[in-house]
Write a structure and sequence with these properties.
By secondary structure, the protein is of the alpha/beta class. It has 7 helices and 7 strands. Helices cover 44% and strands 16% of the residues. The longest helix is centred in the middle third of the chain and has 29 residues.
Length: 246
């Protein structure tokens, strides 16, 4: 199966977790994939490992909160590969405190990396995606962009909720310009963003009784990025083991 043959993709946060699984999936299906991250050692190692397997993968440093870096990286991708067809805005960080004790510095940092980054990505990549004639953007939101979770992590919830609606707004703006824009909403996933969180507790409160593997989320991202989802834009794909069904 080679759904991404001839396609160039950029994946932010691609050095680990859901982003890494997405990079592996895109590359396995023939895509030219650029990993964008601030984890330079990890990103380079992933690119070298996959290139050694015959995949077309490279790495670029990208601070997703920087407009200048976004413009630089997008320009380099187009110059080096001739196009950009797929953008996966996956980079993000979280917070875990109550709103009463969350500092403005924490709030601003989470918003910058998890929310503003998506705006900057849309803006910087807009011309290249439209020029491709068949562009696709997938934004990683969260089930906590839909529901309030535990009543903590105010910055993360605010950021992911904003990603959900920015996705819809951009989808409408680009609906007749050859670019689809959709969001994916993971539940609890076994990735580094969970930190020291009790994974058994998270599994116990998930209706399916377990947390997800990164590959299960990547499968959804690949679907939305592919022509299999050719009539989908402004949609939200929830992959949460049933958490938001109750």
């Amino acid at each position: 199966m080679a759904r991404f043959e001839g396609k160039v993709a950029l994946v932010t946060g691609g050095a680990s977790g859901i982003g890494l699984a997405t990079v592996e999936g895109l590359a396995a299906e023939g895509g030219v994939v650029v990993i964008a991250d601030v984890q330079d050692d990890k990103g380079q190692q992933v690119a070298e490992r996959l290139s050694g397997q015959g995949r077309k993968v490279s790495y670029k440093h990208l601070d997703v909160s920087s407009e200048a870096e976004w413009e630089k990286v997008i320009g380099e991708v187009v110059a080096e590969h001739g196009a950009l067809h797929i953008l996966v805005n996956n980079a993000g960080i979280g917070d875990n405190e109550a709103i009463e004790v969350t500092s403005k510095e924490t709030y601003d940092r989470v918003i910058a990396i998890t929310q503003t980054s998506v705006f900057l990505g849309h803006k910087a990549a807009s011309a290249a995606l439209k020029a491709s004639g068949n562009g696709a953007v997938v934004n990683t939101s969260s089930m906590f962009g839909i529901v309030g979770g535990f009543g903590t992590s105010p910055a993360y919830h605010a950021a992911k909720g904003a990603v959900r609606l920015l996705t819809k707004s951009t989808a409408l703006a680009w609906a007749k310009e050859g670019v689809r824009v959709n969001s994916i909403h993971p539940g609890f996933v076994d990735t580094p963003i969970l930190g020291e969180t009790d994974r058994k507790m998270l599994a116990d409160i998930t209706p399916m009784g377990r947390i997800a593997r990164p590959e299960e989320l990547a499968a959804g991202i690949l679907f939305l990025a592919s022509d299999d989802a050719s009539f989908m834009t402004g949609a939200e794909l929830v992959i949460d083991g049933g958490y938001t069904a109750g």
